[in-house]
Automatic annotation (TrEMBL):
A molecular-function term among this protein's GO annotations: oxidoreductase activity
Low complexity biased stretches: 26-46
Region ranges (Disordered): 26-85
Pfam families: Tyrosinase
Coiled coil start-end: none
Name this polypeptide is given: Tyrosinase copper-binding domain-containing protein
Annotated organism of origin: Clydaea vesicula
The Tyrosinase copper-binding domain, residue ranges: 273-284
Signal peptide segment: 1-18
Length: 388
């Protein structure tokens, strides 16, 4: 027993060492959406009920994806743990559509309220503490799905309708002129790397954990993943193949390009930048599209880097087992595709190879061989897509 206490002490110390600026938070502060006060504020009345259309969540999907997702190879029990709250869920839309629908102001209001009461800082710290569990292995997509779901519940408890996503593929060929990077949304970049206008500008917003101005580093000529390259990843029937392609590819490029060499998005504390949440929401949309295209795909414990992923592993600090993040139905998420009349694709169908994801991959400690393979594949796919 004394040994256990000593080990716990060492664990606590190593967390503290990893995060010297912030003491380890108690579970209560890390779980704002679960506390009784917040829960009672989350009334159905404050969130207009909107259910999914059958086209967004086909009923067959539940049947084919749900219980069958545990293969015989994994003989663990498949019940228990937190079931995610589905009441009040709303199909997530692209942020430009959110604005057109008139839901943007409520979203920003809710977001800023989570910044000022310290909730957002707890998510940033949480992301750092779960770094090894949540990146460069099969947990990547399930972990971030739950991270976003919990964050969305907190936003909803403060009046937002849902967490929107940023379809970065639409801006992939002309990032500098993206409407997303203007005062209307997430701000224009100043020459010193800070944000010059909009709600997240220097002076209006500082990073939740260290109180510094937000910094970004994209520049002329930078490209992100065009949708045909993402579709290529979705077409991979293997979960780990798709997950690796997305994490090292589309996901890493957005972090590296938006953050530049050392900006807010290029480091482990990347949830400091609000674009983190919208970017990861699009990554989750890609995971969702893959699930719709691969109904009945078994829970895949296979892994592309470390260890195995098992259905009953808990996604900390929430009591959510990995299996509850596996299907869109169990995880209670759903998406509306971007409306091409609102989310205009820049570049008239041009597809250039995505820029290098070096910044984020290096800072994150990614496997360099895998990174090179994924980058090479993306370049080859550009050629293939152009020929088709
Ligand atoms: Cu992450």
């Amino acid at each position: 027993m004394h040994l256990t206490q000593a080990l716990l002490g060492i664990l606590a110390l190593s967390f503290a060492a990893a995060l010297p600026q912030e003491p380890v938070e108690t579970e209560t502060t890390l779980l704002p959406s679960e506390s009784s006060t917040v829960q009672s504020q989350t009334s159905q009345a404050s969130i207009p009920p909107e259910t999914f259309s059958t086209s967004t969540l086909p009923p067959s999907e539940t049947n084919t994806l749900a219980p069958s997702t545990t293969s015989e190879a994994i003989s663990e029990p498949t019940t228990g743990g937190e079931t995610l709250r589905c009441s009040g869920r709303t199909a997530r839309k692209e942020v430009r559509q959110m604005k057109q629908d008139g839901d943007w102001d409520a979203f920003i209001g809710a977001y800023m309220s989570l910044v000022s009461d310290g909730t957002l800082a707890s998510y940033v710290n949480q992301h750092v503490q779960s770094w090894g569990f949540a990146h460069f292995n099969a947990h990547f997509l399930p972990y971030h799905r739950i991270f976003l779901k919990k964050f969305e519940e907190d936003l909803q408890s403060r009046g937002a309708r849902y967490l929107p996503y940023w379809d970065s593929s639409a801006d992939s060929q002309d990032l500098l002129n993206s409407q997303i990077l203007t005062a209307e949304f997430f701000g224009k970049l100043a020459s010193d790397g800070t944000i010059q206008d909009g709600p997240f500008s220097r002076g209006n917003y500082s990073t939740p954990v260290d109180g510094l101005p937000l910094t970004r580093g994209y520049k002329e000529g930078d490209t992100l993943y065009a949708f045909p390259l993402i579709q290529n990843a979705i077409n991979n029937p293997s979960f780990s193949g798709m997950s690796e392609d997305i994490e090292y590819g589309q996901h890493a490029v957005v972090h590296s390009i938006i953050g530049g060499a050392s900006g807010s998005m290029s480091v482990q504390t990347s949830p400091n930048d609000p674009l983190f949440f919208l970017h990861h929401c699009y990554v989750d949309y890609i995971f969702y599209k893959w699930q719709l295209q691969n109904p009945g795909s078994p829970f895949e414990a296979d892994n592309y880097n470390l260890g195995r992923m098992t259905p009953n592993e808990i996604i900390a600090p929430w009591n959510v087992p990995v299996r509850n993040a596996w299907t869109v139905d169990q995880a209670c998420v759903g998406y509306e595709d971007p409306d091409p009349n609102v989310v205009k694709v820049a570049g008239n169908g041009t597809i250039r190879p995505p820029s290098n994801a070096t910044a984020w991959l290096n800072n994150a400690g990614a496997n360099k061989t895998v990174a090179k393979t994924v980058a090479k594949k993306a370049t080859e796919n550009v050629k293939k897509v152009k020929e088709d």
